C-alpha cells in the first residue's frame, strides 16, 4: 500500500500554472527526490504536501486519509526549510523541543527528547547553545532534529543542503541517507542537484515546467530516461534525431543505425550516454558505426573525453585512456553506437518545453 | 561599498555642516537652558544668574509629581497601544504584494505629515455632539441621542494613538520586512496554528525590536503638547503643557527650564535604552 498518493495535484497562481496535475504513489519508507531545474515546481509541490500551499486541484491522500485541505499544523509532517528557519530566540535544545512544548509536554520530557534527537543527529551537548553560535553544519542538524522531534509520518526537506560547502554537503548526503534508513521514515527531498538525487534517492522524480517527466529509481532514470528532457537533464547525453525507414533501421545524420526497439515508422529521438559511445580508429568496419572528425579531446584522468563532429553534429564520447585511438584533433574517427545503449525517446516535437 | 572610517579633514567634511548645526541649534540652546534652570527667579521680573537648585526641588511637590506621573503613564499607554495595534498590522503589511505595501506606506506617511493641530481639531469634531460620530450611531439606532465624547481621557488617548500609529509602523517595518517568512511556516509544520505561531515565534523572535519601538513611541508621545489641550481636560495636561504654562504665562523661566532639562534627560535615557535593545538583536 502506498503511504502517500498525489492525485493530479495542481497549483495555479493566476495565469501561471506552477504544478500541472502531479500524480505519484510513494510507498512507505521510500526516499524520494524531487529533482528539476529552478522554477520547475518542485518546491511548490513539496509545499502543497506540507500544507503550506493550497492546491488548486487534485487530491492528497496519506494512508487512505484525504488531507488535501487539512491545515499544515494538523498534518504532523516534519519539514526542513531551505533557510532552516531555526527560531533565533531559542537555544538549539528549545528549537528541537518546540513541537513538544506546543503540545504541552513537561519541561523534563522536552529536555529528554531534545537530547535524544541531538544524539540521533550526532550533535550531543549543544542543547543549551543559542542557534546563532552554531556552525552551518550544526544548524543543519538541529533543523533536521527539530523536524523529526514528533516522529512524523513524512519527512520533508526543501533543498536542505544547498547552503553547505561541497565537502560538508557530501558528508551530509550520506548521513541523511543513513538516518532515513535507520528510522525507515518516508522522506521527500527537493533538490536541483542531480548528483544528490542520484546518490540518496530510492525514487527520483524528475520535473520541469510544472510537470513530472519521470518517477523511477535513479539507475532507471539514468539508463531508461522517459523523454529527451530527462535524458538531457540527468548526466550528459547525445541526442540523435532519426527517421525509421524500414523495420529496425533508422537514418540519422551521418549514416544508418540498426536498433531492435524502434517504432515501426516515423521520427524518433535516440539518447546515447557518452560512456556507451565506442571510438574506433578510422577505416575499421563494423555495425552501427558513423564516421566523424575529432574536434576536441581532453584527459579527465580516469577517462578521456572526445568531441567528434559527425555530419555537423557534435557527439561526446568517453573512453578509458588505454582504449584511446591514435588520432589527433582534425583526424577522422569511426564512432560506434551499440544497440543496447541506444534509448529510443519520443521525437522532439512531443518534448514539453 | 567602501566600509572604512573616514580619515583627514577632507573625508570628514560632509559631517562638519550637520555637526555645526547640531552645536548651534541644539547644544548651545540646551546649555543655556541648563544654565537658566539653576538661575533664580525674580518675582515680577525675569531671572538673574545664580546657582540654586530650588527649581529642581519643586519636582518633589505633589502637583508636579502628579503631572509627571500622568505624562509618563499616558506616554506609556500610548506606546503600548500603538505597538499593540501596529505590530500585527505591519506583520500583515510586509506580506502584501509590493505595490500594495507602497500604497499603504504612502498613506501612512501622509498621516504622519498632518500637523498636530489638524489631527486635534479633526478628532474633536469627530467626537463632538453636534457633528460627531455619535450622530451616526443615533442614525443607526445604536444610541438614543448624540453626545459629546471630547474632551475626555479616551479622546486624548485616541488622538495620540492615531498620531503615533504611522510612526510606529514605519519604525517596525524594516525589522518585520527582514524577518524570515519561513519561521512562521516552520512553526506551523511543527504543530502551531497560525495565531499560535505568531505568539510563540514572531513576537518573541522580535522581542528587542518591540521593546525598542515601544520606547521610541513612548518618547514621541511624551512630548505631546497640543493634543492634551485640544482633546483632554486640564487634569490631562502633560509636562510639556506645564512647561509652556510656566515659561509663557507664569514667566517662571528657571522652573520651566528645569522641567525641560528633566524631560530631555528622560527622553535621551530612553532613546539610549532603545538603541541598546536594538543593537542586541542585531548581534543575536
Distinctive features:
heterodimer, A: 353 residues, alpha+beta, Rossmann fold, OB fold (Dihydrolipoamide Acetyltransferase, E2P), six-stranded mixed sheet, five-stranded antiparallel sheet, 8 helices, 24% helix, B: 284 residues, mainly alpha, MetI-like fold, 13 helices, globular
Describe this structure in words.
The complex is a heterodimer of chains A (353) and B (284). Chain A has 353 residues and is of the alpha+beta class. Chain A has 2 domains: 2-232, 3-Layer(aba) Sandwich (Rossmann fold), CATH 3.40.50.300; 236-350, Beta Barrel (OB fold (Dihydrolipoamide Acetyltransferase, E2P)). Chain A is 24% helix and 35% strand. Chain A has helices at residues 42-50, 92-102, 107-120, 136-147, 166-183, 194-200, 218-223, 228-233; strands spanning 2-13, 16-27, 31-35, 57-62, 65-66, 78-80, 154-158, 186-191, 203-208, 211-216, 238-246, 249-252, 255-258, 266-272, 278-281, 289-299, 304-310, 313-319, 332-336, 343-345. In chain A, the strands form 4 sheets. Chain A has a 6-stranded mixed β-sheet with strand order 6-7-8-3-9-10, with helices on both faces. In chain A, α3 crosses α4. The longest helix of chain A has 18 residues, at 166-183. Chain A is elongated and about 80 Å long. The model of chain A has no long low-confidence stretch (mean pLDDT 90). Chain B has 284 residues and is mainly alpha-helical. Chain B has a single domain (34-283), classed as MetI-like (MetI-like fold). Chain B has helices at residues 8-37, 54-57, 62-93, 98-112, 116-126, 133-139, 153-178, 182-189, 194-205, 207-222, 226-231, 239-249, 253-283; strands spanning 40-41, 47-48. Chain B has a two-stranded antiparallel ribbon with strand order 1-2. In chain B, α12 runs antiparallel to α13. The longest helix of chain B has 32 residues, at 62-93. The radius of gyration of chain B is 23 Å and the shape is globular. The mean pLDDT of chain B is 86. The A-B interface holds A 50-52, 71-73, 75-79, 81-83, 85-89, 98-99, 101-103, 130, 132, 146-147, 149-150, 156 and B 180, 182-183, 185-194, 196-197, 200-201, 204-205, 207, 284. Chain B: One of its GO terms (biological process) is transmembrane transport. Chain B: One of its GO terms (cellular component) is plasma membrane. Chain B: Residues 68-274 form the ABC transmembrane type-1 domain. Chain B: It is a multi-pass membrane protein. Chain B: Belongs to the binding-protein-dependent transport system permease family. CysTW subfamily.
